[in-house]
Amino acid sequence: MAKAWGGRFQQETDPRVEAFTESISFDSRLYEVDIRGSQAHATMLASVGLITDEERQQICESLDEIRGEIEAGTFAYSASLEDIHMHIESALIARIGDVGRKLHTGRSRNDQVSTDLKLYVRDAIDLLDGLLLDCQRAFVGRCEQDAGVILPGYTHLQRAQPVQAAHYWLAYVEKFQRDRDRLADCRRRVNVCPLGAAALAGTSLPINRQLTAELLGFEAIAANSLDVSSDRDYMAEFVFALSLIAAHLSTWCEEWIIWFSTEFSFLKLPDAYTTGSSIMPQKRNPDVLELIRGKTARVMAAVPQLLILIKSLPMAYNRDLQEDKLALFDAFDTVKACLELTPAIVAGAQLQTDQIASRLEDGFLDATALMEYLIKRGVPMRTGHSTVGKLVALCESAGKRLADLTLEELQDACELIADDVYQVLGTENAMKALQSFGSGGADAVADRVKHWEEAVS
Ligand code: ARG
User: Fold this and answer.
1) Model-level pTM?
2) Probe ligand 1: pick from 82, 86, 109, 114, max atoms within 8 Å of CB?
3) Class of domain 116-147+154-197+228-353
4) Would you say 210 and 221 are in contact if contact means Cβ atoms under 8 Å apart?
5) Distance of CA 115 to the CA centre of its chain
6) pLDDT tens, position by position, 286-307
7) Closest Cα to atom 5, ligand 1: which residue?
8) What is the pLDDT of residue 81?
9) Is the peptide bond before 316 cis (omega within 30 degrees of 0)?
10) Per CATH, which fold does 367-451 belong to?
């Protein structure tokens, strides 16, 4: 097949080179944004008189037909046409000849591919924002369902302080909000139009970059053509944002895998989201959670992959950049698939509240509340810390809980302790004593539940 760039070449391309250099096997998904970009470009070319309005119409209609063929699965792909951009352009020329040969006026594949990728990433951001909102809704939805449930809070996976279950659910809602904010911030830099930078230096033709940018919904136009054709910052930022989403999902999964174990027994997972073992009949495995955790590796790996790809490239476009799509698409597809499954798992899981409650007095979850009780009575914090530490040691050797200690035993440790100490001892009291903004105590959490219920409604 004759190459669009074949003019100065005397030899055919070696088929192994075609196979080695093609990107159609992974960039065909850009067809929709490529056609959108080309139609806007054609409209701009007509507006400045570089093509006639009739030619514009022919180009746009033929591009619509080509899109229809691609979507119907009847479009033929060939490695010899390298990438989606050349496929669409040659299909256009096959249909309308010389008029099709005018479409690439005033642009290069370098600004074209960057425009396509920015449109693709922008759409991806908008889609992910909706999926993250669905996840937030699922987590917020748990707050009412688990109202009044107290969970042991952990640090170092050791029992630390008690919190309302809703506080745990909303912790993820906050993380997803930051993920959404990060995507929105990334979107601002994505939404700057590269089209018109041409190969690297712009063009001597009287193009109107403002118009194409407006037609494609870009907020601004990139001001330096050299910068544009080498710029993949927005993509590195985007996959980093994806990596943090994946990290949040992965830590949630890790937690639930632990909670789902017989040892913890904090959680029941719906059958539809667990799988069995081929040899052990009793098994029910949290495979979906494990795979979300596992797939996170690929998403995170996309960040160094892109950074390494761009780190040594001289200005401006270099063919290395063709490889950017592999990292981008894989990271995006993976996070999208994980986010699509998450809400149903969250909504379908059940806390084993009896199991949780039966062990809630274990692990001295009220020790910090006792220390803060002492502080309120004027004991310096470090002294209070050491006093309670000694009481915990006493309890451990006697097989008791702090609330089991008599007032005399407590007063032996610190004479400022009075009868009202029993109002902070015990896990439920310790949880109720929490009152700072953002804490896991009942009132603070109730306020945040209300806030989030409104925010995601
Ligand atoms: N397939 C290439 C890519 O994805 C398109 C740009 C090619 N540009 C060029 N000057 N050869 O990056």
Assistant:
1) 0.96
2) 109
3) mainly alpha
4) yes
5) 22
6) 999 999 999 999 999 999 999 9
7) 109
8) 96
9) yes
10) Ribonucleotide Reductase Protein R1; domain 1 (1.10.40)
